[in-house]
Amino acid sequence: MYVTIVEVHVKKEYVSNFIEATRINHLASVKEKGNRRFDVLQMTDEATRFVLYEAFASAEAAAAHKKTEHYLQWRATVSDWMATLRKGTTYNGLFPE
Amino acid sequence: MYVTIVEVHVKKEYVSNFIEATRINHLASVKEKGNRRFDVLQMTDEATRFVLYEAFASAEAAAAHKKTEHYLQWRATVSDWMATLRKGTTYNGLFPE
Question: Is residue B6 within 8 angstroms of chain A, CB to CB?
Answer without folding.
Answer: no
